Amino acid sequence: MHITRSAISLNVPDVRASAEFLKRHFGFTQEMEYEGVASLTREDVGFNLIFL
Questions:
Q1: Given 1, 10, 31, 39, which residue has the most CB atoms within 10 angstroms?
Q2: d(Cα 23, Cα 12) in Å, to the nearest integer?
Q3: What phi, psi does 26 have (nearest 5°)?
Q4: Secondary structure of the chain in the HEC alphabet?
Q5: Residue 3 pLDDT > 80, yes or no?
Q6: What span, in angstroms and rounded, lies between the C-alpha atoms of 39 and 9?
Q7: How far apart are CA 37 and CA 39, in angstroms?
């Protein structure tokens, strides 16, 4: 088996602030945002992070 992509979901107290931190400091891009949910990705490493 060869894993090419992974994802993780985290419950955080402030979705927007958490997403902004990852974008600013770790180069993530935001794929989508709804009230209380944000999905961020790093295509270069095949990783998706979802904040709830």
A1: 39
A2: 16
A3: -125, 5
A4: CCCCCEEEEECCCCHHHHHHHHHHHHCCEEEEEECCEEEEEECCCCEEEEEC
A5: no
A6: 9
A7: 7
Asked whether the beta carbons of 4 and 18 are under 8 A apart, the reply is: no
- Which CA distances in Å does 8 have to 12, 40, 41, 44, 47? 13, 10, 11, 16, 8
Per the CB < 8 A criterion, the answer to whether 31 and 22 are in contact is: no
Cβ pair 5, 48 in contact under 8 A = yes
Residue 37 CB partners (closer than 8 Å, separation 6+): 15, 50, 51, 52
Give the closest residue to 48 by CA, choosing from 20, 11, 2, 8. Answer: 8
Instruction: Quote the tokens at residue 32.
Output: 């989508």
Amino acid in the structure at residue 10: L
